[in-house]
Amino acid sequence: MLIGSLFPTQITHSSTLSVMADKNSRIIMKVLDGEGKIAKTLTSIVDAGKQDLALNLSDLQNGVYILNAFCGDIFLKSIKFIKQ
User: Fold this and answer.
1) What is the pLDDT of residue 54?
2) Which of 66, 8, 1 is nearest to 27 (CA)?
3) CA-CA distance, 33 to 70, in Å (whole number)?
4) CA pair distance 81, 64, nearest whole angstrom
5) What residues are paired with 55 via a beta bridge?
6) Cβ neighbours of residue 71 under 8 Å, at least 6 residues apart?
7) What gap in Å lies between CA 26 and CA 54, rounded to an integer?
8) Which of 2, 3, 46, 73: disulfide with 77, CB 3.0–4.6 Å?
9) What burial class does residue 84 get, using C-beta atoms within 10 Å of its C-beta: 0-12 exposed, 13-18 middle, 19+ buried?
10) Are 61 and 83 in contact (CB under 8 A)?
11) Per-residue pLDDT band at 59 (split at 50, 70, 90)
12) Tens digits of per-residue pLDDT, 16-53?
């Protein structure tokens, strides 16, 4: 599984994460705050192929965050974003 980009990276309510999966999989996204604490965990089932996942991040406080994406226990990608 490949994680593309998060758009936009300056978020007010939601953002879109592009994903390319070689098979049906479960993706786990852990959002870490500036202190490294888990602020939110999102889980989504993705089908094989390219798709865009809508992420609701409106419940986060304003600040800088890191989204870490995993497929099972396998780390895929880390993406920094700003919640406004």
Assistant:
1) 96
2) 1
3) 17
4) 6
5) 15
6) 1, 25, 26, 27, 28
7) 15
8) 3
9) exposed
10) yes
11) very high
12) 999 999 999 999 999 999 999 999 999 999 999 999 99
Q: Label residues 18-57 b or e (16+ Cβ within 10 Å = b).
A: ebebeeebebebbbbbeeeeebbebebebeeeeeebebeb
| 65 CB-side CA count, 13 A | 30
Q: Which two tokens stand for residue 17?
A: 């994460």
pLDDT at 11: 94
The CATH code of the domain at 2-83 is: 2.60.40.2550
Q: CA separation (Å) from 34 to 58, 61, 65?
A: 17, 11, 6
Q: In what order do the strands lie in the sheet with 74-83?
A: 10-11, 74-83, 63-71, 25-32, 38-46
Residue 68: CA count within 13 A, CB half-sphere: 15
